Prior knowledge:
Helices cover 66% and strands 0% of the residues. The protein is mainly alpha-helical.
Amino acid sequence: MDRKRSAAAAGQAWQIYSETLQPDAPGLWTRVRAVPRMLKAVLRGQYKGMSFGTLGLLALGLVYIISPIDAVPDVIPIAGIVDDTGLALWLAAVLVKSAGDFVTWERGGRPTVIVGEPVD
């Protein structure tokens, strides 16, 4: 990941953090605690605010960060760490943003599906 992308990821992370400071928005700690519930709801098919594709990209990103195999090796002084840092910021930003949407969805009441004929 080059410096422009890393800076963009940092800017996006800051923007999402600033969103958590809004008076009516869920706070950062509320969002962090909601991540496991959100992941369970996505996997069970209860929450449609995050697709399986996004969930898969998050999992691949986590594997990339943990894996010793990198596109830019960590032995290269700065660039090796910048790509992992940028990806970690992206992962955190997506999770925090999605968790905020999930908390808002939870607070608004979960829509239920009733099987049967539509009524006008």
